[in-house]
Amino acid sequence: MLGTDFLLDCLAKEGIDHIFMVPGGLIDPFLPALGRQKIIRPIVAAQEGGAAYMADGYARASGKFGVALCIGGPGLTNTVTSVATAKTDGSPLLVISGEAATMLEGVGMFQDASSQTLNDANMLREITHFSSSVDNPKNLHHLVRHAMLHLLTEPTGPVHLSIPKDSQVANIDAAYTPLNHDLTHARVLSLHYAEETLKHFIKGPNGSAPIRIVILAGAGVEHAESSTTLLKFAEHWDIPVATTLRAKGIFPEDHPLSLGVFGYAGTHHSRLAILDNPPDLLIVLGSGLNERDTMNWTLKLAPQNTICVNLDTLAMGTHLTGSSVVGDAGAYLICLEDQAEKIRPALELTRETRKKWLADILAQPRLQDSEDCASSAIPIHPARIIKELRNAFPRDGILLIDSGAHRAFAGHYWTSYDPLTYISATNLGPMGWAIPAAIGVQCAQPTKKIAVITGDGCMHMEGIEIATAARYQLPIIYVVINNAALGNVWLRAHTEGPVPDALTVLPDLDWAGFSKALGGNGITVTHPDELANAFSIALKNKGPTVIDIKADKRCVTPVQDWSSACATWSYQE
Fold first, then answer.
1. What is the domain extent for residue 382?
2. DSSP 464-476
3. Best exposed site among 307, 315, 321, 401 by fewest CB in 10 Å?
4. What's the pLDDT tens digit per position in 157-214?
5. Do 442 and 312 sit in the same domain of this protein?
6. Which 3 state secondary structure label does DSSP give 9?
7. Is residue 486 part of a domain?
8. Mean per-residue pLDDT for 489-509?
9. Same domain? 352 vs 377
10. Which H or E run includes 169?
11. Does residue 542 surpass a pLDDT of 80?
12. Is 565 within a domain?
């Protein structure tokens, strides 16, 4: 079969049913091949960066990987931020770019970005797990396989393949066999060090059995598909669970053992349990131990009362001096389950005292300024928007959150019940990511309701992809918290004088009208009492609906605990 058919057949055999793309001359042979392929549905984006964001969203929501197809050169460089975002969040994204035929490299071919000119493959090497050009059609089969292994082996991340035109149209005499799931989900665990940590469950730093035990669950639990295992373990021993913002939703936030989010936009409950009076034992599962996961590094990870499990040895080596377990968070939880009889006496002995300690924490306010959720202010308070959307939205609906002040409001006030129902690019945090990413999520989960919380600044950057959602009649709800400003930046800048203030305000554009012009639906909301009806209409609409909500830029984000921690932190400690 032709190289294009071979590639698409590989994707179909790996369970991929959508590909996100922008057509162009260097990938012309893929167009008829997509017509011959009966499994994969192509989605044409407005811009290559948007296509890659869509593929990223598809990967996060499907549990598989996402695929973006574009031309090399300007098409591929448009994806750079999208690929970097996937890398920082560990999202498996395959970018396929077309390239000039190898015999024409370096002779002045239009848009040639081969190794003889810009070198596309090298350009993406620093932000991917694997980036290569197929320099000979005979290499296509094994380079695709190499790419798949790098893509799907934990820790996951993006990969890139540059396919010259001669490889696209060559006859490939090879058959692709899907990767063995056991190979890519190997449940790697340093068993000796995992078993060494059992001593922490039996005897705390003061010599007695630990009473106050807390689990801080990060994205590694999601990557390991182990939220159910985590829930079972926590319930078995009545151990409370906090999550990082990146992992919000992997533990149901209405569960009696939930402490909510710890770190940026976190709850008072998690701060009380983890930071104010450090627990006898803190179990950190799958967190990169970055600034936002650790409350600006004010979280003290002492080896005598901390167990940290991660596949990323660099993260642990940077922030820990002991009690590190290299491994998959799910494999570690299974190990604890297998060793239940060794830790049972101590955990049973302390169970009732631990439940009383947790009850005292949960009796205190969970959220900052919770009265803002019922605010009748005009312009509308963002907390009221979050609360009204949560009330209207299905429990199993999927929410995507963009980057800006709205991230803090959503992280703090939104209640998540299930894994993969709260999705955000939290590490690199590019503005506008959620707008196209939601298209990939909707393609991966066609029966689910999908909503996006974004801002007017984000709409300036990626709002054109509303046209893509309209083209394919995807019923995504885009909630634009329109405060006529770059919210988070304005909150800092306006105190510095009139010039910083002026540089961070935006014109109050008609985003509902913008959506209508692109073929979508549009609703404008100026009063908080209009929110419930707007959400009700949007949930019934066909195609995308942009709800332009006129919000107050002066509302301070709910990051009080975060700000207090930042004020006390010193790099020298």
1. 370-557
2. GGHHHHHHTT---
3. 321
4. 999 999 999 999 999 999 899 988 877 777 899 999 999 999 999 987 778 899 999 9
5. no
6. helix
7. yes
8. 95
9. no
10. helix 165-169
11. yes
12. no
| Residue 394 shares a structural domain with residue 506 | yes
Q: Is 21 helix (H, G, I), strand (E, B) or coil?
A: strand
The b-or-e profile of 295-313 (16+ CB within 10 A means b, else e) is bbbbbebeeebbbbbbbbe
CA angle centred on 316, ends 310 and 319, rounded to 5°: 145
Last residue of a domain, one of 331, 362, 393: 362
Asked if 161 and 224 sit in the same domain, the reply is no
Tokens of 32: 């008829």
Domain-embedded: residue 568 = no
Q: Which residues contact 436 (CB under 8 A, 6 or more apart)?
A: 45, 49, 50, 51, 53, 54, 57, 462, 465, 468
Tokens 């893929």 belong to: 30
Give the total residue count for the chain.
Answer: 573
- Tell whether 570 is covered by a domain: no
> Which tens digits make up the pLDDT trace of 285-333?
999 899 999 999 888 888 889 999 999 888 888 887 667 899 999 999 9
| pTM for the whole structure | 0.96
DSSP state of 275: I
Which tokens is 477 given? 């709800």
Which residue among 362, 389, 410 closes a domain? 362
What pLDDT was estimated at residue 573? 45
